[in-house]
Amino acid sequence: MFSCTRSSIIRPIVSQNGVCIRSFSSSLINLKPKATSDPKKKLKREQKVKALNKQDPESHPLYMTIPNAMRYLRAAEVGQPAKKTTVSILMTVLPDKGSTPLSGSVYLPKPIKDNHVMVFSLQPEIVEKAKEMGATYAGGLDLIEEIQNGNVKLDQLTHAFATPDVVKDLKPIARQIGPKGLMPTPKRGTVSEDIETLMRQSVGALPFKQKEQHLSIPIGRCDFSDEEIISNLKAASEAIYASQPPGTRKPNIIGRTFMSSTLGPSVIINFKS
């Protein structure tokens, strides 16, 4: 016969037939490291964490090159719609005393979300340039007339921009494009002479902000090519490293960077280079 003994972790349960079953009580297990009030021990632990995060990522057993990492992440997402998967990076950021959290925006060369842009302008060269950059619709009075006649599908549009010369001509279609958030206005920053810059910054902009000792940002999807992922990573790296406040004597230490997908594992990558 087996006898059951009660401990601080193992809790006995006896079934109807007298068989003793042991179950673990998670409420009694503390997985968090004990906080220490000893300044020397605390300093030693912080120095150890800094040293680990300063090591070359290639020395870590989970390190992978981007093409190799993407092979595993794509394999983990098999059966899932590629456009609904997200490839993200999570980095450790070790702030110094009194340092400013990293924040800013990344302009991804390959946007994660599919954008459908409409551009209004009375200048033919701007209309042509907008079309070259992938605008779904671009035009002047002719485009306004098409919208009035109901010949333009507005449901899939995500952004609308205009040059100042055409703003006054948009009033007749305000009721059609306004409720969909597509009415260009100077207040919203969607009216400018430089439509090319406006399209690049507004459509591809992705904000980021450090939270405590971590910074996370999506950089692509599993249906992106390796080259597109690498291009987005380079843009993110440049933006994040450039977000250090100018003149900072002791900048935040950007340590280990993990890359993962929605259902995939996390791997270490070289984010700086």
Give an overview of the whole structure.
- 27% of the residues lie in helices and 21% in strands.
- With 273 residues, the chain is α+β, with helices and mostly antiparallel strands.
- Among the domains are: 98 residues, 2-Layer Sandwich (Ribulose 1,5 Bisphosphate Carboxylase/Oxygenase), CATH 3.30.190.20; 87 residues, Rossmann fold, CATH 3.40.50.790.
- The protein has a four-stranded antiparallel beta sheet. A three-stranded parallel beta sheet has the order 6-5-7, with helices on both faces. A two-stranded antiparallel sheet has the order 1-2.
- The protein is elongated, with a radius of gyration of 27 Å.
- The termini are far apart.
In short:
By secondary structure, this protein is an alpha+beta fold. Among the domains are: 65-102 and 210-269, Ribosomal protein L1/L10, rRNA-binding domain (Ribulose 1,5 Bisphosphate Carboxylase/Oxygenase); 117-203, Ribosomal protein L1/L10, domain II (Rossmann fold). The chain contains seven helices and eleven strands.
